[in-house]
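Please describe our next protein:
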Amino acid sequence: MFSFDCLRPFSNLAQLLSTHPSDTVRRLPPTPATTIVALPGKAQLVFVRDADLMRTLARDRALDRGPGVNLLKSVFGPDTLFLMPHGKLHERRAGEFNRHFGQRHIEALTPEIAAHANRAAATTRAALSAAPDAPVDMRDIILRYLFDVGARAIAGVDVDLCDQVDVFRRGVEALHREATSMLKTALAANLPGTAPYMAKEARRAADEFHEAGRRMLVAGADRHDIGDSLALSILKRHKIDPAQVNEATRLPKPVLVDAAMSLAASLFTTGNQIERTLHHFYEHPKELQQLRRLIREDFPDGVGEVTQLRNCPTLRQLLPATLTESPVGIVSRDVLDATSFTDGNGTSHPLRKGDAVIFDIEDMQARHVPDIDLALAEDGRPTLELFNQRHDDIVQTFFSGPNRCPGRYLAVADSQLFLIEMLSKFDGQSIDRNRPLERGIVNRLGGSPLMRLTPVRTERAISPP
């Protein structure tokens, strides 16, 4: 007797190819914490919403960056840190990044980040004074700020990259159009030779963005005898003497990709996270008013003079909301070698080569909001301590194991300082009354980024800059 069960793997595959896993995982029932979806050829897709299991699997070398990222590698290059598989080369690159973007270094950089946040708010206020009725491009404001902070963190000195913002935005738009398709991703994974023929517009934009990398490397080289920086480390790793680098130096493409993609990584997720958090508070005025009262108490003179982010009532409200609005909805890994795992019920499951595992970061982080609030309850401690390895049990936004986001300290510092400034000084309303959440490579707000801003006048949120 014919059973339709034999067709279910093909039905599952058709559904997966027609939508993004970020959408698929939201349609799963809340329990169990591990869901296995059968695919043709005995392959399976495993959805994980158990933080303990994620930490275990994140360290399993059988799960890694594999053919599932072929399409992205064709855009960003095979040696981009966030696409590299485990191994000595990845350990070296991640160690290099962690050395320059670790907690101690970002805390030392905090006063300069705060100054940039204060300057971004002042520039916005000046623009509103000149044209009070004109909407502002909030995405542009956010990215210009993040470009300044990211370039400073990489080069060790301020670098003017304002003309690169539009290049980056074109690339991001093309990436969302061309690389979110699961059909293209599957084709590139199974037929690697097809990857270079897809996402051509995104690849062209990525090539244009190499100019941003060149400028940071030149700026970093110019201060080679003053201080260390990621830009100098990149040059030295590629066996280039920083003392011989100047504006006329032609740097090899791999060096430019290395620097440019390090900057892009600091922009891609944080920009969306800030925009989503602003939108959340502007759409929830009661929460916003409560936050402003806290800011008046914790930051009466604004963030311009802040030297370190420390736990306080403002961050107890703002930081959990920011993490909940993370654009990283899922993290996926290919199964490259046979292994197994035990779920929360004690049942063992085999994983075969060719399977894939999807970690539901969005769900896991949302369930830990109360724990983050509790961890921030002790006033006066450095806030960035929350994002070291000791707190992996409550912070899932930045993944776990060898591929934990090395830029997490910078992302937290620059997002919180900017949000404190903007939310305390301006009321905002999107010109699009409905901005849906678009799920894909990252989750982002759809619709127009244009907003109508008005300075906060009824409360002395913080002193004018």
